[in-house]
Amino acid sequence: MSNIETIVIVGAGQAGASAILELRGNKYAGKIILIGDETHLPYERPPLSKDVILKPEDTKIEILSAEKLADLGVTTIRGNGVTQINATAKTVELQNGDVVAYDKLLLATGGAARRLPNFDALGKHVYTLRNLEDSQALVPVLQAGQRILLIGGGVIGLELASSARYKDCQVTVLEQGPMVMGRCSPRILSEFLLEQHRLAGVDVRLNTQVAACRLDGEEIVVTLADGEELRADAVVYGIGIVPNAQLAIAAGLDADLAIKVNENCQTSNADIYAAGDVATQLREDGEFRRVETWENANLQAGIFARHVMGVEHPKANPAWFWTDQLNINFQFVGDMAATQWLVRGDMDAAKGADNSFVMYGVTDGQIVAGITVNAAKEMRHLKKMISKNTAFEAEKHLDLAQDLRKIA
Predict the structure, then answer these.
(1) What whole-number distance in Å separates Cα of residue 8 and Cα of residue 107?
(2) Lower CB density within 10 Å: C or N end of the chain?
(3) How far is CA 278 from CA 32, 58, 133, in A?
(4) Is-contact 131 32, C-beta < 8 A?
């Protein structure tokens, strides 16, 4: 540790903030420099599609205040991002031309919204959601009676559909695939989500392709592949992200779409690390995978901090994430590709926000995944079952009289 005098963190988001807390929590006494493109201090992103829109005056999303950063001895550079890495000299160059030296470098640059150029070309009434300004821009747009067209039926699209319906908008969701949340949800839960949104008045169209779009005065006209025309006051699209890996690629680091890192979050250069949405990590099965979750950003930031300090980091937990839609809390853990799904409780879509049940994902007789619906207190027990390679026993695990805490 004596030779690590300066750690530079590029990216002032969840992973960057978590790395700072982990470093100082593990008694790193050297210099930390946090560099961000945005003028904001680090903030939470999950509320951007929900509370920031619904309760903008009451929602606090800041992770680290200026006072806290000062207390932690962090030098913060805002609104002046990195334009170049010189891995040989171990420096980064900023937009204003300044050069900052590092001993260890963490790239926590996240990702940018994947673009739809045909919609961007319309120039107005078209939105994406990736940062605080994007969320704030939607507050005056999502107003009662407005016709909102959402392109993409993933987590962001459905959370925005929920927020828009709460604001009494007319909402249509276009999803080109056969399922909502198809990338991260089993079909049985996807169908439940679909029914919830339709019961709430959201017009969800699956297997739907957009052929064209145009402006007609202050309306956006979207033509579908079957010739149908939809008119909207605003379009919001969320079709995934593109990792902000350009700096790493230009510096010659090993990358494809994202920056490749090993189990210690090191890139192909041992002094440069990456964490969060920008990193695709080598997993135990020998494959590289990228995980876009709040938890993963924190986990990889912790791995980085502990590794540079020579502190052993714990084995990764099963992947976990959550989404809040239509006043229902959904939490997911483990392998969503499990071969069989079994429900503990009553999976009655008509109950709306009064639903509460647990789902087990089972492969080869073993619990490999779990989902809770308005049953967050049971998630810790599902995580424990997965970590222990628990064999699924229907008479025990589906019995509501059994306390999951006692059988986990």
Answers:
(1) 9
(2) N
(3) 21, 31, 21
(4) no
State whether residue 78 is helix, strand or coil: strand
Which of helix, strand or coil describes residue 188? helix
Residue spans per domain, the chain: 6-49+61-112+241-309, 115-237, 327-406
DSSP 35-73: EESSSSPPB-SGGGGTHHHH-TTT---BSS-HHHHHHTT
| 322's tokens | 């959550």
Return the closest-CA partner of residue 253 out of 17, 103, 84, 102: 84
Structure tokens at 385: 């079952």
Q: What's the average model confidence in pLDDT over 365-388?
A: 96
241 neighbors 114 (Cβ within 8 angstroms): yes
The residues facing 127 across adjacent strands are 236
- Which of left, alpha, beta for 342 (phi over 0: left; psi -120 to 50: alpha)? beta
Roughly what angle, to the nearest 10 degrees, separates helices 294-308 and 14-25?
40
CA distance linking residue 73 with residue 90, whole number of Å: 22
pLDDT per residue as tens digits for the range 261-298: 999 999 999 999 999 999 999 887 888 999 999 999 99
Q: Which 3 state secondary structure label does DSSP give 346?
A: coil
Taking the alpha carbons of 37, 261, 270, 14 in that order, is the dihedral positive or negative? positive
Average pLDDT, the chain: 95
**Distance separating alpha carbons of residues 238 and 370, to the nearest angstrom:** 26
Residue identified by tokens 């605003």 is 234
pLDDT band at 86 (very low <50, low <70, confident <90, very high): very high
Environment class of residue 356 by beta-carbon count within 10 Å: exposed (0-12), middle (13-18) or buried (19+)? middle
The answer to pTM > 0.85 is: yes
